[in-house]
Amino acid sequence: MKANKWTAVLLTAALTLSLAGCGSQKSGPVKEGSIVVGASPSPHAEILEAVSDQLAEQGYTLEITEFTDYVMPNTALEEGELDANFFQHKPYLDDFNEKNGTHLTSAAAIHFEPLGIYGGKTADLSQLADGAQIAVPNDTTNEARALQLLQAQGIIEIDPDAGLEATKQDITANPHNVEIVEMEAAQLPRTLSDVDFAVINGNYAVAAGIADQVLVSEEKTSEAAQQYANIVAVREGDEDREDIQALIKALQSDEVREFIEETYGNTVVPVF
After folding, report:
1. What CATH number is associated with residue 127?
2. pTM to 2 decimals?
3. Same domain, 213 and 232
4. Which range is least confidently modeled, 12-21, 129-138, 142-151?
5. CB 271 within 8 A of CB 109
6. Is residue 236 packed enough to be buried (19+ CB in 10 Å), middle (13-18) or exposed (0-12)?
7. Domain range for residue 213?
8. Which pLDDT belongs to residue 10?
9. CA 146, CA 126: separation in Å to the nearest integer?
10. What is the average pLDDT across 90-107?
11. SS3 state at 235
């Protein structure tokens, strides 16, 4: 009788530990059927919101985490806090991987945001004065892209060998002696009153409500429209995951094309 009593106690303890172990496994951060995507608030998070119902019909809950910078969404994706992110173009991603040792890749291209020149203290490019200040993004690929846009307007000339790593140090001709002011891309709309012009990323212009004030922008049919298309980024090896493919299919649907065209006009252009 004593042996049976102790056997029952041991079995009860073992069962308790087993149930506790199962409970701890279920309390992890990953939710079955959820897709966690990091995104810039506008237009990326707004476009994602537009596909949440499509994904829900397939059994996926879309969770959107908003970021206001260009570094944290890639860091969070690399560390496994996100399933994907949606805010950047591939040249920026390639440069980020090289400089940070991350292992992220493009799963699909969704849209193109033409980089634009916006007036600040000076209203029109025809009024460009000698010594004018022009603010540009300070991240490698977007600064080069901004300088190329300024070059297309005849404002400066840059070393053709600098490519996507061009900075203001690569300016070879500056007939108006303009001052190039490098700053974090998200800050550009807020500094318009302090500079003559600023070259601003489309998503930040949309978020600031100034997209309709653009003076000149990259052409929709330009090489940049493909080269700088905004992508869904994932960790290497996750491209073919069923949930990622469901996300991409939803983002490249006719419904999303219509949403982008009706909501953003010429500032956001579908590339699928």
Report:
1. 3.40.190.10
2. 0.70
3. no
4. 12-21
5. yes
6. exposed
7. 116-217
8. 35
9. 18
10. 96
11. strand
